[in-house]
Write a structure and sequence with these properties.
The complex is a heterodimer. By secondary structure, chain A is mostly helical. Chain A has one domain (8-159). Chain A has helices spanning 6-142, 146-159. In chain A, helix 1 runs antiparallel to helix 2 (146-159). Chain A is rod-shaped, with a radius of gyration of 63 Å. Chain B is mainly alpha-helical. Chain B folds into two domains: 31-40 and 71-139, no CATH class; 144-358, no CATH class. In chain B, strands 4-3-8 form a three-stranded antiparallel β-sheet, with no helix packed on it. A three-stranded antiparallel β-sheet of chain B has the order 5-6-7, with no helix packed on it. A two-stranded antiparallel ribbon of chain B has the order 1-2. In chain B, strand 1 and strand 2 (67-72) form a beta hairpin. The chains are: A mainly alpha, B mainly alpha. At the A-B interface, helix 1 of A face helix 2, strand 8, helix 3, helix 4 and helix 5 of B.
Chain lengths: 163, 363
Amino acid sequence: MNFVAPESLIFWTTIIFLAFFFLLKKLAWKPILNAVKEREDSINDALLSAEKARLEMQNLKNDNERILKEARAERDAMMKDAKEIKDKLISEAKEEAKKQSAKLIELAKFTIQNEKQAAIVELKNQVAELSISIAEKVLKEELSSKEKQLKVIGDMLKDVKLN
Amino acid sequence: MIATKPLKAVLLAIAMLFSFVQFSYSQEYEVEHTSENQPEKEFNAGDLINHHIADSHEFHLIDWNGVSYSMPLPIILYTNNGLVTFLSSEFHHDNEGKVIVERKGQQFVRIHDGIFYADKVVDDHPSVMDFSSRPLNFSITKLVFSMLMSVIILFIVFISVAKSYKNNPNAPKGLTGFMEPLVLFVRDDIAIPNIGKKNYAKYMPYLLSIFFFIWINNLIGLIPFFPFSANLTGNIAFTFVLASLTFLITTFSGNKYYWKHILMPPVPWLLYPIMVPIEIIGMLTKPFALMIRLFANIAAGHIIILSLVSLIFIFKTIAIAPVSGAFVIFMTMLELLVAALQAYVFTLLSALFIGQAVADDHH
């Protein structure tokens, strides 16, 4: 090994390196390392808060889904109720109609009965009148004897048929 | 302006560094007329490689028409008569001790890039470790110049990155977007796993500094032209300083468990005379391994690439150039990986050693 002057290089290396070290330590290494550290911290914070936000979103989404589900269930229940009410109404209406019609029929029947009775009475009256007029005619023609007259009247009455 | 256009600022800084030196010293460029009147020397790959991976008092630019151009660098000597400074160009490219520079009544010569007192050198190959024959040398050498450049680049890059965080609180982009993953890599894959979440923050500036400092100097060493190419991280004096810093930080961060493990290891006390010295040696071998590993890896990479290039000159044929070139490209790609890998390994092991020193008791 061909040394020129080892003390020269040792001396200058020590001086230059130490000066280099102390100056760069103050002017470069500390600012760089601090800046990098700060940035790393801020990135970590950002990641952490992003994760938090994601969780919150998840919760919100779950809530929404739950609310939606509940709303759906409520709607279903309401629909069911409405259907029940509707059915009930329909059945009630049907019932009412039936009742009403039954009443009407009853009334009609009653009226018919009355009319029939009236008609029968009317007929009876007319028959009586007719009988009287027949009896008059018979009386006029055959009122010769009393026995004959009575026999004629009785026979005629027997022949009359009411219905 | 720097914050908005960091790339331009880096280029500008390099250009300014470069032009300042050139401007001041351009008239000093020395011309060496050796090959014209001397027979051409036999090519020696070992000399070339040694010269290339070693430090130097001038930054060699190019050899053109037998003339060697290089950028002179300041020589700063602490001599017996006090501080002496002059430019390396005063030696006129001489490396054999023939040109004598006189300052403050003392004469200096340069022999194989070492500066010696002219009157105290006795042989042709004096040892640089012989401090009686040479002054203390605190010159701005090629490697120091390269290191200054790397530090300026890192300053501009990281200060602009730091500023961009103030202006842009959103996701990083541009240069910041490129640098931030590297910073986070050091933090998340080196510091936190090895030191632990409790203690790592205190050591982050050091780990980031050595990681980028080693990496950029590894890369600068791989760029094969001026003002790059200096083999700084492949120099053991450089790696020695960095490993020493890791050692000091480890030692001074050590908690009671760390010292208890060294001074009172969990073995029968009869073994203490063996175990305690081993543990203390272990404290030193860890940074020693760091020092050797980085130095050897980077120096070896430079040596391999230069050896492959030298093949062309050894075989003296251009026919070998495609083969050599292909291998050089392959090795350079590998070295790009090694440049990052060794910066990573050095940082990782530093973090590991610090982590051992600050760890809670697990026994």
